[in-house]
Write a structure and sequence with these properties.
The chain is mainly α and about 850 residues long. It is about 60% helix and about 0% strand. The protein contains 43 helices and 4 strands. It has a two-stranded antiparallel ribbon with strand order 1-4. A two-stranded antiparallel ribbon has the order 2-3. Helix 36 (about 655-665) packs antiparallel against helix 37 (about 670-685). It comes from Aegilops tauschii subsp. strangulata (Goatgrass).
Length: about 850
């Protein structure tokens, strides 16, 4: 089918007509424009105008394009020839032209552009063709032309594809395959709704997925399979060159999928990683799949005989805080089994931490004065060496945070000439009442993770006649064993003796100690014991509140219905006066911890919370929602919480504080969400009510915890001088949180200036000291970030600890600045060595 020889008409820029051609029909059914040699029929002015336009278009075409246009028009005519041989040749030529043009697509390919006017003609002719190979050829061409010509929603490209020949669809180009994938998704939904067969669609899906996977378009393949609900198909199409990109897309998109699709996406990613023996990545996915964690983790272990790899897996599990038993299946050799169990239990964590400290020469103990650096402050406040109880209490916390895990300091463990306990005894009694409890507990923080030495040194305080000292020692036992598991359970044996003592301070110390020591362990023995205390009519309100908090920490993220019921009944039975107590706000937190990150699982409990007394109802509802969706990035929940923050409240309502914290908790999962949340919080600062402004600094603190971003630092610095005392104190504490364990020089400078600025304000100065201690946490070797493994995994125990402390900070004057300052020790759950 060679093109006709150039004619006079052609040279003048008009199309020539092949003598064997009859004028083709146009898409509207009428005859095409008459040949130039015939007189033009009379036409309306508008159509002659259109004709002039067409002539102008033809004049604009280059000679090559004009030749191609004429050639394609000739093929259209020949394709309708009565002779099957001519038809076949025309269709083959047309296919060849389209294919060669679509292989490199930058704009609409010329063959498709020139064939557009003939789409209707070819469609009409196709319907008249008898069933044959040629009809299938014609369907293929119509399927490609429908790419640019088909009406919206008609899915003609797919219809003709299914009627066409069973060839390689990739040869028609990427854009065609993409368009087909989109139409398949729509057709699949329709067929499922009408209960029609989908087999032929799935055959096409196989081809498209295979094409995408070979051409680095893994996200498009995954999207298509999600649409047609057949993600399992992915496993057979991935290879060693593209499995990492595929799994990365699956894990990233799982955050935005509804349940149970999110779990399915992670399941497929786990299967693919196991297929290509990328076991460390498979383990991370296994830890993300809560309900299947233990089963999948064991599969990862048994997939290799390499002991070094198994050690690496054990370190990842220990960092995440998963309680796991190493059995014979995982390691047959007794010595290997013992070694792996030690790593999982964090038994050698203290040893490794101290080795690191010696290697980088930071073992020397630091005193609070080394942190305050008073000599760098000019003028007022520089010489404030008042030996007040509040200042000593602040120094206790600073000393505990800075020397955390080092086993030595200059206040509690410094050797004295007279006796080994002389110095610590001296410092202990420089504190008053509840301050002694925090001072005794600080020894647990200094000896963090070193259970043998820690329990031995704390034991002497258990025999004290001062109940506050005993309570502090019990809390210290919980702190020192935090995150370290032991077959003998020494903490459980010691603390259980004191849980039912008459003195409420001792009870609180023992109960909170158990909550910290066994956070996330879901120990049934503790459930029985602590639930019994919740039903004890003799117990004081504060004992009951801390019991609920301990249960929340031990069973964090477990959705344990029994404990939830106990806390709900306890809340329902409270009197008006008890509900007015500031400490009561920790009860909704305890309930929320049970559902931390579990999304829809909280709905039944949230419904029940709507029946609570109106004083606590909204507070509980908002807290439950914010904790259940913590770390999920759920945009709809963030919008809902922003809506709550936009309301103007009656006096006395406090539920907007947890709503602000909830925005930060939900949005903290990924960088972009956190950035958007920071902007939203800036707006709340400008337009929000006073109780919202008080919570904003704390929300900023959790968004950037142990990650001092300059813009957030500047905002908090500005707020630390706010006229409202609660706002400025929250901002000061948050400066400590964002700089926690970073030794950030700029934040340290800001806090020194603040200590000079607030030298007459005891409460503000206390907050400044706490923040200074946090910034120098573990001399810069520790972090409070609940995320690990490249921010992929979120430790529920760590987040639970941070959330409890932040909710306590919402009413700082009654908690941290009152007699409940020991709540700050719960932050130990989030302390981890920086890796």
């Amino acid at each position: 089918a060679s093109p006709p020889a150039p004619s006079a008409n052609r040279i003048r820029g008009r199309p020539s007509v092949h003598p064997a051609m009859s004028p083709p029909e146009n898409p509207n059914g009428g005859a095409a424009a008459a040949a130039p040699s015939e007189p033009a029929p009379p036409a309306k002015p508008s159509s002659s105008k259109g004709k002039k336009k067409d002539d102008k278009k033809d004049d604009d075409l280059s000679e090559e394009d004009l030749a191609l246009k004429e050639q394609l028009e000739l093929y259209v005519v020949r394709a309708q020839d009565v002779d099957p041989g001519v038809q076949r040749l025309a269709l083959e030529s047309m296919r060849q032209e389209i294919r060669s043009a679509t292989s490199s697509m930058t704009s609409v390919p010329k063959p498709l552009k020139f064939l557009r006017p003939h789409y209707g003609t070819l469609k009409s002719y196709y319907e008249t063709m008898p069933e044959s190979e040629l009809k299938k050829y014609m369907a293929d061409i119509l399927s490609v032309l429908a790419l640019t010509m088909s009406a919206e929603g008609e899915r003609e490209s797919l219809r003709y594809r299914l009627l066409g020949s069973e060839g390689d669809i990739g040869s028609w180009g990427h854009e065609y395959v993409r368009n087909l994938a989109g139409e398949i998704a729509q057709e699949f939904q329709k067929r499922q709704g009408d209960d029609m067969p989908i087999d032929e669609l799935m055959e096409l899906v196989q081809q498209i997925v295979s094409f995408h996977m070979k051409h680095n378009a893994e996200p498009e393949a995954v999207d298509l399979l999600m649409e047609v609900e057949d993600l399992d198909l992915l496993v057979e199409h991935v290879d060693s060159t593209n499995y990492k990109r595929t799994c990365l897309y699956l894990t990233s998109s799982s955050r935005f999928l509804p349940s149970p699709d999110d779990t399915l996406a992670l399941d497929i990613a786990y299967t693919i990683y196991m297929k290509f023996e990328d076991l460390a990545s498979a383990l991370r996915i296994a830890l993300l799949l809560d309900n299947k964690s233990i089963q999948y983790v064991k599969q990862v272990y048994t997939a290799t005989d390499d002991l070094v790899l198994k050690k690496q897996f054990s370190y990842i599990i220990a960092r995440h805080g998963l309680a796991m038993e190493i059995d014979d299946e995982i390691a047959a050799d007794e010595n290997d089994k013992e070694m792996l169990q030690e790593i999982v239990n964090n038994t050698k964590l203290s040893e490794g931490y101290l080795t690191l400290a010696r290697d980088i020469e930071v073992m020397e103990a630091k005193s609070p004065e080394d942190i305050y650096k008073v000599h760098l402050i000019d003028g007022r406040g520089a010489s404030s060496s008042l030996d007040s109880a509040r200042q000593n209490l602040a120094a206790t916390f600073v000393n505990a945070f800075v020397n955390a895990g080092f086993g030595q300091d200059k206040l509690m463990t410094a050797p004295s000439d007279s006796s080994s306990s002389g110095s610590s005894g001296n410092w202990l009694f420089k504190n008053k009442e509840h301050g002694k409890a925090s001072a005794a507990a600080s020894l647990g923080m200094i000896l963090l993770w070193d259970t043998d030495s820690g329990l031995a040194q704390l034991d002497k305080y258990l025999h004290s006649t001062d109940t506050h000292v005993v309570a502090g020692a019990l809390l210290g036992i919980g702190v020192v064993t935090c995150g370290v598991k032991n077959d003998c359970d020494p903490a459980l044996a010691i603390l259980m003796e004191y849980v039912n003592k008459d003195d409420s301070n001792i009870r609180i110390g023992a109960i909170l100690g158990l909550g910290i020591a066994y956070a996330g362990s879901q120990k049934d023995e503790l459930r029985v014991q602590l639930s019994a205390i919740l039903g004890d009519p003799q117990a004081t309100l504060e004992v009951l509140v801390f019991t609920a908090v301990a249960l929340g920490l031990v069973f964090v993220g477990s959705c344990n219905e029994e404990i939830a019921q106990s806390i709900i009944f306890f809340l329902m039975e409270r009197s008006e006066a008890e509900l007015a107590e500031p400490i009561i706000r920790l009860l909704p937190v305890a309930l929320g911890l049970l559902y931390l990150g579990k999304q829809e699982s909280v709905e039944a409990t949230a419904e029940v919370s709507k029946t609570f007394d109106e004083k606590i109802r909204k507070y509980c509802d908002v807290t439950l929602m914010s904790l259940a969706y913590a770390g999920t990035g759920n945009v709809l929940k963030v919008q809902k919480l922003l809506g709550i923050c936009s309301q103007h409240l009656e006096k006395g309502e406090t539920h907007q504080g947890p709503a602000v914290l909830g925005i930060a908790l939900i949005a903290m999962s990924e960088e972009l969400g956190a950035e958007m949340a920071v902007r939203s919080l800036e707006r709340l600062l400008q337009y929000g009510e006073q109780n919202i402004r008080r919570a904003v600094p704390l929300a900023l603190g959790i968004l950037c915890i142990s990650n001092p971003k300059v813009n957030v630092m500047d905002t908090l610095s500005r707020l630390s001088h706010d006229a409202d005392a609660d706002v400025s104190m929250a901002a000061i504490i948050s400066l400590g949180l964002i700089g926690a364990g970073t030794n950030n020089a700029r934040i340290a400078g800001m806090l020194r200036n603040l200590s000079s600025y607030y030298y007459k304000e005891a409460a503000h100065l206390f907050c400044v000291r706490i923040a200074q201690g946090l910034v120098h946490l573990g001399k810069g070797l520790l972090t409070l970030s609940p995320y690990h493994s490249d921010r992929f995994l979120l430790s529920p125990m760590a987040l639970g600890g941070i959330v409890t402390v932040l909710h306590a900070c919402l009413d700082m004057k009654s908690t941290i600045l009152g007699k409940y300052h020991y709540i700050l020790y719960i932050i130990v759950l989030a302390m981890q060595v920086c890796i």
